[in-house]
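Supplementary Methods, section 5.1.

A reviewer requested that the exact input to the structure prediction be made available. We therefore reproduce it here, unchanged from the version used in the analyses.
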Amino acid sequence: MRIKNIIAGIFLTILGLVYGYLTTGLPERSLPNTPGPSFFPWILTFSLLVLSVSLVVQGFRMAADQSGSEKPDGDSIPAFLFLGVFAVYLALLPFFGFLIASIPFFAVLMALYGETRKLWIASLAIGVPVFLFLVFRDVFNLPLPRGTVSILDGALVALTG
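The structure derived from this sequence is encoded token-by-token as follows.
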């Protein structure tokens, strides 16, 4: 796993740098106080670089720690299960909107990754989508999907201001 983390981190760092370079030629937007077309690619580039460098650092830390043994992958959950959960989330997103569809999505993913503390799952499954909704609505001025079943979504929007 150590060498896989290092190789994947280096590859993703190079990919992030290339992607960042390719986004430098995007045009600037002429509307005042709005993010331009190059704003979100730069967020993606920064996030990808931070995560890929973290993966490289983690790989080197694991290599330096010779006493720790790696966890066997025999009891891990198959990747197709995560993809299935994500496909269901994408299918429900247009109908229920971002807030309502994201709460069970985050809860199921946390449970699949092995989190057992119910209060932790519930608080993060509610808190993360509400935080993301507020960031996109108030900071980026971008609406997230509201969905066609908007009774509960409207109540959550009213609660978040």
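The helical segments are 2-22, 39-64, 79-112, 118-139, 151-160. These observations are discussed further in the main text.
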